[in-house]
Structures are given as C-alpha cells and as structure tokens.
Amino acid sequence: MSSRDPIAALEIGTSNTVLAIGEPEGATRIRIAALGSIPSIGVRKSHIIDIGQAAHSVDSVLKRVGRDFGYSIGHACLAISGPQIRVKRMVTQWQLIGKTVGDEDMREIYNRSLETGLDADERTLLDESEIGYGLDDLDDIPSPKGMTGHVLKRKSLCIHGDTRRVMDAKTAAQHAKLEIADAYFAGTCAATAVLSQADRNAGTLAIDMGGGSTSYTLYENGHLVHAGVIGVGGDHVTNDVRTAFSLTKAQAEELKKSASALVGAGTGSARLEVVSSTPGFDPVTVSRKALETIVNARLQELFAVILDDLDRANLAHRFNAGIVLTGGVSSTPAATALAERVFGRPARIGTFIPDIEPVEDGPPPATYATVAGLLLMALHDQDPQTGFHPIKTLLGGLFE
C-alpha cells in the first residue's frame, strides 16, 4: 500500500454508523473525499448488542458511499469507544549499554514499552502514547538521546479495550464484507482532527460527546497524558427528555434540538410544540425552561464527572489552554458556555486542523471528527517503505 492509496475509516456508533474515505495529499495531509452516515441499529451505549443489525448498518453505509461517491471498499480502520476502554500508565526501564543514550537504547526501550503485560484474550491495545523520559534522577526529559547516565526510563500511556467488544465490531464489519485493518481509540482520533501542535503543547482537554458515551483526552507539553470514557452521551439526554415529558424517542430527539445547555440561554417562545407521533392526536406543548433544566442537568453532571476524574489524577490544573468539544452533542446551543462554567477554562467547538481538508458541502467538522482524525492517524502510521503499521502490523491494502 503506497502513501497515495485511499484510506477508509469506520465508526459504528450508538447513534450513527459513519464511513469516511480519505485521499492522501503527501505524507501528512489528507482530503476527505467521501462521507456516509446512517442511523445505527444493534448498538447500545457504544456496545454492539446485535451483530446482524450492526452488520446491516455497516452494509448500508458502504452502499451509500458506493452509490454517492463511487468507492468500492474492502478494508477500513475502525474507531472504538465505550466505557469498556481502560487507561494504564506505564514506566519502562532500560540499563544503558554505554554511558550515553544512543539510537539502540532508544529502540530497545521503545520495544520494551510495547510489552504492556495485557492478556490479548482479554484486552486489545488501541493506543500507546509517549509521555516523556527519565534518566537516573532526572525526570520530564523530552529527548534523552546523547545524554549521559545509567538507567533510562520511558513513561507512556496505554489505552486498551475489551477484546470481546472489539471483536464484535470487527465481526459486524466482516459480515458486511468489510475487513478491519486496525482499531484505534475514538477519543484520540477526535482529538487528532481538531488539536493543533500548539494546543497540545499549551495544555488542552478534548471532549468527544457521542450518542452512547463520551471520550476525553488531555494533552500537555505535546503529549497525551490522560484519557477516559464515560458511559453517558446524547442518547441519555434524549431518554431524560422522553421520560420527563412522556414522549416517544423520536419526539424527544426532535425536541432536544431546541434546548440550550444553559437554562434561559435559548431564544424563542416560552413553550415548545411537540407534534404527536400518532395521526389524529393534537400536538402538546412543553415548557422551554423545563426542557433546558433537564438538558443542563445531564450535561453539567457529565462535565463534572470528567473534572472529578482529572482532579483525582492531579491533572485538573493542566489544561489552561482550554477545552475543545466534538461529537454530535457538541452542537447543543451554549454547550461551550456550560463547559466554561464547569471547568473554569475557555471552551470552543472543534474545527479541523490544516492537515485535514473537510468533505465538500459536508456537516460541521466537529460532528465527524472521529473518522476524520482516524484517517489522519492511519496515514501517519503507514510505514512509507512497507505500508504497515509500526506497532500493530496493518493488514494489506485498504481497498480492493
């Protein structure tokens, strides 16, 4: 596979199954040439609960991309999320061959850091990110090569998923005759699409708000230093609205589009009309303030849980550059204002970095940041000599 071959990225989400095709433009830039999205079936809270239905969703989005853009796809990379994701901090040590850190030492400690100790039958490695190095009694060294010492240490963050859940997603794709070349953590993918190197250096928290779960990643000094997933997303907001007003899911989904994340921040009439889902029944009205109170409570709780996790990890002070929101829920009016209130930092909706050219006449970039970032990560991970992933051994060409 050459660096000029198209790349496919798949996300089987709780709300939507999304497929994107990227055309590489050089070694570091990608143009999103095709994007397809359909409502998911067989998925709940970011977990596949019906292989056949999920496979139907994948097959449908494959046909849509084929019909609308003319691509015939045989292989793709896969984004994985959900509360089954775990994060493991690792410190790998290596006794230096000589007194000076050389290329061989750097290769050896890198290879040793990939020996994560995970049981492959239970856990699947999705990402391994370097945090920094130490040398003897020195710490937080960005690049130790050429320095003198005895024991080299490499700190890294290992992100892994439940092997069974990863295999379920791969099986659903395979039933739709789509082979999965590799699996990545969705949170890292979304952050890759919207965070510049300056964002990563300054300290930025990226929050990807999906339908069934919310992923978050924290970057500082150019490195991923923390990550997590909470099993709460847009579907939970929908269910709150549905329960509060005795509505159908479709009615609640439509109604929440009119809600602000902050009570009183929305515009329009004090009451909102809900059209009956059954012919012959009159529409009902609900209080805008009551609706916004429900949406605010759920999203505020979500942000508070993330902040609490960062606080426990002693990282709540490490993202002074602010927060970047992505995912479908990020389009909720005043979502950034609520984030600023909870975290005490500036917040914005994510936009693509210059290395990603968005699909022409497509939806807002924040809503498909995961597959866009996955395309860029897959491009970066291609070995220019072999076309293979340097860590996980990418399967052959991505396209038939």
Order of helices and strands: EEEEEHEEHEEEHEHHEEEHHEEHEHEEH
Name the CATH homologous superfamily of the domain at 196-350.
ATPase, nucleotide binding domain
Mean model confidence by pLDDT: 91
The CATH topology annotation of the domain at 196-350 reads as Nucleotidyltransferase, domain 5
Strand count, sense and barrel status of the largest sheet are: 6 strands, mixed
Strand order of the largest sheet: 11-6-1-2-3-19
Strand content: 25-35%
Helix content: 25-40%
Q: What is the tally of helical segments? A: 10
Shape descriptor reads: globular
Distance from N terminus to C terminus (CA atoms, Å) equals: 11 Å
Structure description:
It is globular and about 85 Å long. The protein starts with 6 loop residues before the first strand and ends in a 19-residue tail after the last helix. It has 400 residues and is an alpha/beta fold. Among the domains are: 86-162, Dna Ligase, domain 1 (2-Layer Sandwich), CATH 3.30.1490.110; 196-350, 2-Layer Sandwich (Nucleotidyltransferase, domain 5), CATH 3.30.420.40. Helix content is 31%, strand content 30%. α8 packs across α9.
